[in-house]
Amino acid sequence: MTKNYPDQLSFIEWFQLLEQLKDCGVKKVIFTGGEIGLNHDSLKYIDYAYQLGLSVGLITNGTLIGKKRNAQFLADRCESMTISLDSIDKEENDKNRGRGCYEIAMRGIRNLLDIGFHNIYINATVTNYNLKSVDQTIEFFKENGIAYKLGGFSELGRGSMADISLSFEERKEIEWYDRYGLLQLLNQIIPDTMLKFQLLNSLPMGIKICPKCSEGIIINCRNGKTGHLFKACSLHCGHTEKFNTTE
Questions:
Q1: pTM of the predicted model as reported, rounded to 2 decimal places
Q2: Residue 57, in any domain of the structure
Q3: Total number of domains in the chain
Q4: SS (H, E, C) the chain
Q5: For a surface tag, which of 112, 116, 167, 236 has the fewest beta carbons within 10 Å of its beta carbon?
Q6: Is residue 154 part of a domain?
Q7: Helix axes 42-51, 11-23, angle to 10 degrees
Q8: Which residue range forms the structural domain that includes residue 91?
Q9: CATH code at position 148
Q10: Per-residue pLDDT for the chain (247 aa), expressed as one digit of tens each?
């Protein structure tokens, strides 16, 4: 149920705001929240933005696309849709997002895939709850042609370490895993142009491509039995290197 606030925009003010954005030269608007699907007029606002000629994007937990007719309505009007899903494992996802969130997100994703909408993006937050299923989750995205963005959970400011927190090394690994996943996708879809060359050579200093498979990146690892550090390919191709303690 939508919560009413004393200073919230009226139905007419929403339309006037979109018109003002258009008059000011704005080209694209992205509807998000909270959860935009909790506003019972959200479809009307999105439709009006589209009718004004604005490029429309949507960020949702899946609520707004839970019905196939709504998914089709939005697919006809939105350039892209971003959905929050942390894991392909229901239990792990709902530990992060809350009970029922997995079903809401997956229903929306399935609806979009069923109607042939492919500009789907996923925002995934990685915590200790879903760290082990990252590979399987990414595989699901790849199999369905879904772009994704991984974000490692971390505290802000002086926040104390929570049970779901990742270590610094784990966050760094997720960050570059995410970056290199994007570069791999670009490698597949962009022809051999100068743009592609620049993108594929944009890895920061200290991050290098595996010399054996030429697909993974070299990451820091720890031997579970001895505790010794070593370097290995992120795609587990078998390549390993000695760990330099001066790095």
A1: 0.69
A2: yes
A3: 1
A4: CCCCCCCCCCHHHHHHHHHHHHHCCCCEEEECCCCHHHCCCHHHHHHHHHHCCCEEEEEECCHHHCCHHHHHHHHCCCCEEEEECCCCCHHHHHHHHCCCHHHHHHHHHHHHHHCCCCCEEEEEEECCCCHHHHHHHHHHHHHCCCEEEEEECCCCCCCCCCCCCCCHHHHHHHHHHHHHHHHHHHHHHCCCCHHHHHHHCCCCCCCCECCCCCCCEEEEEECCCCCCEEEEECCCCCCEEECCCCC
A5: 116
A6: yes
A7: 30
A8: 9-165
A9: 3.20.20.70
A10: 456 667 888 889 999 999 999 999 999 999 997 788 888 899 999 999 999 999 999 999 999 999 999 999 999 999 999 999 999 999 999 999 999 999 999 999 999 999 999 889 999 999 989 988 888 998 899 889 888 888 877 766 565 666 788 777 777 777 766 665 555 555 555 555 545 455 555 555 556 778 887 777 777 777 767 777 888 887 677 888 887 755 5
